[in-house]
UniProtKB/TrEMBL annotation:
Name the record gives this protein: 1-phosphofructokinase
Family affiliation: Belongs to the carbohydrate kinase PfkB family.
Record-linked PROSITE patterns: PFKB_KINASES_1 (PS00583), PFKB_KINASES_2 (PS00584)
GO molecular function, one term: 1-phosphofructokinase activity
Domain Carbohydrate kinase PfkB: 15-296
Originating organism: Deinococcus reticulitermitis
Pfam family, one: PfkB
Function text: Catalyzes the ATP-dependent phosphorylation of fructose-l-phosphate to fructose-l,6-bisphosphate.
Catalytic activity entry: beta-D-fructose 1-phosphate + ATP = beta-D-fructose 1,6-bisphosphate + ADP + H(+)
Any GO BP annotation: carbohydrate catabolic process
Enzyme Commission designation: 2.7.1.56
Entry GO CC: cytosol
InterPro entries named among the record's database cross-references: 1-PFruKinase, Carboh/pur_kinase_PfkB_CS, PfkB_dom, Ribokinase-like, Tagatose/fructose_Pkinase
NCBIfam families found in the cross-reference section: 1-PFK (TIGR03168), pfkB (TIGR03828)
């Protein structure tokens, strides 16, 4: 079982990425590149972990009307496809990439509504799949028809079954998960998402540390707070570190947070200490932003990136 990862994506998306350098709002713009890729946070995590060499199963809800792109992607990556097919098309997310400004603008649609029957089928599938996997990653937004507490209930079930659970979501779903009696083992919000979920400003490093420390005392094992170009603050019972990435030429920031989740999950499975886990996770993110799509660079390039990550001890011990 060690090394096997199950990812859940309730609201996947076909990512339509258009490169349009210097595009202007309200104007006719010229595009340079176009790609259509299987996406969604859990799908991206599965892709990165498969690139790393892990055995991965991806499940969730997938529109049957346009599933071909996902099916081809899973075959190419070697990811086991355990998605429940639902009537209708999976949503399309538009991403405008501006190389000149090193910016990405996202347009996300709500997705297909989840029916009670589809959720029952998915939950039965999760129950069958979870025992064969060491870690479960719950990632992305909730589609219409799914209550905010859905992830929180899944976390409780999976942790009670002895699985390591990582959660990467935002909004009411994150608020509910962090208010629950049993928290995920790994939580990876960005600074703004965590502030919104906890209902208070977290503008200083001290405030972020106190928030992370509180989550640890309530059952989380690892809290990673991403902060864009400033890297990430990663806190566990070992202490707290700030990982700062090297400067690279940014192609697209799409999937950078998902790559960090994948890096942290792989580091957990390899039992890496906190500083090395931070290096790997940051190297995954750096490798991702230098290319389009959910693809990791070769291991040699990842090793070089990891060696260029600056890891600073922020706190010796979390009490």
């Amino acid at each position: 079982m060690p090394g096997r990862v199950l990812t859940l994506t309730l609201n996947p998306a076909l990512d339509l990425t258009v490169r349009a350098d210097g595009w202007q709002r309200g104007e006719v713009n010229a595009g340079q590149e176009l790609s259509l890729d299987a996406g969604g946070k859990g799908v991206n995590v599965a892709s990165f972990l498969a690139d790393w060499g892990l055995s991965v199963t991806a499940t969730g809800l997938l529109g049957a009307a346009n599933a071909e792109t996902f099916e081809a992607h899973f075959r190419a990556k070697g990811v086991a496809d355990a998605f429940v097919r639902v009537p209708g098309p999976t949503r399309v997310g538009l991403k405008l990439v501006d190389h000149a400004a090193q910016e990405t603008t996202d347009f996300n649609l709500p997705g297909l509504a989840a029916t009670p029957a589809a959720l029952r089928e998915l939950e039965a599938r999760l129950g069958a799949l979870a025992p064969a996997h060491a870690a479960c990653v719950l990632a992305g937004s909730l589609p219409p028809g799914v209550e905010a507490g859905y992830y929180a209930a899944l976390v409780a079930r999976l942790r009670a079954a002895g699985r390591f659970v990582a959660l990467d979501t935002s909004g009411p779903a994150l608020s509910a998960a962090l208010a629950a009696d049993l928290l995920p083992n790994l939580v990876k919000p960005n600074q703004h998402e965590l502030s919104a979920a906890l209902g208070r400003p977290l503008s200083t490093e001290g405030e972020l540390l106190r928030a992370a420390r509180d989550l640890l005392t309530r059952g989380a094992e690892l809290v990673a707070i991403s902060q864009g170009e400033d890297g990430a603050l990663i806190v566990s019972a070992e202490g707290a570190v700030r990982a700062r990435p090297p400067r690279v030429s940014v192609v697209s920031t799409v999937g950078a947070g998902d790559a960090m989740v994948a890096g942290l999950v792989s580091a957990h499975l390899d039992r890496l200490p906190l500083a090395e886990a931070a290096r790997r996770a940051t190297a995954f993110s750096v490798g991702t932003i230098t290319r389009l799509g959910a693809h990791l660079p070769p291991r040699e390039e990842l090793a070089r990136s990891a060696g260029q990550v600056t890891v600073e001890l922020v706190e010796v011990k979390v009490h």
